[in-house]
Specification:
The chain has two helices and nine strands; from the N terminus they run E-E-E-E-E-H-E-E-H-E-E. By secondary structure, it is mainly beta. A hairpin with a 4-residue loop joins strand 8 and strand 9.
Length: about 100
């Protein structure tokens, strides 16, 4: 019977990109992620169902400054704008589906 809430700053969004046929991945983490969620809800579904995400694709780190520059210049800066947005479309205890839009 306790209300559930979202703790701002608690969500991290990471990714892995593959360039070579050997499938050696380069991982990174977006540093500027904005989550818009209900302040409180009675159930996890109620808290998450209206959640939206906005990511600044230019603000990320991979742990390698040269790689960051290449990814920023040759991938993200080729998009129409730096924002990636998403909205939760369904939720279950095992799977959270999010429709993402970029470019």
């Amino acid at each position: 019977s306790c209300p559930l809430g979202y703790k701002p700053g608690s969500v991290k969004i990471a990714w892995t990109g593959y360039k070579f046929t050997e499938k050696k991945g380069a991982t990174g983490e977006f540093k500027d992620v904005k989550i818009t969620a209900s302040p409180t809800a009675k159930t996890p579904e109620g808290l998450i169902q209206s959640t939206s995400i906005e990511i600044d694709s230019f603000n990320f780190e991979t742990g390698d400054a040269g790689r960051d520059s290449n990814i920023r210049n040759f991938f993200f800066k080729k998009m129409k704008g730096p924002k990636i947005t998403g909205k939760v479309t369904s939720f279950s205890p095992a799977i959270l589906k999010v429709a993402m839009e970029m470019n």
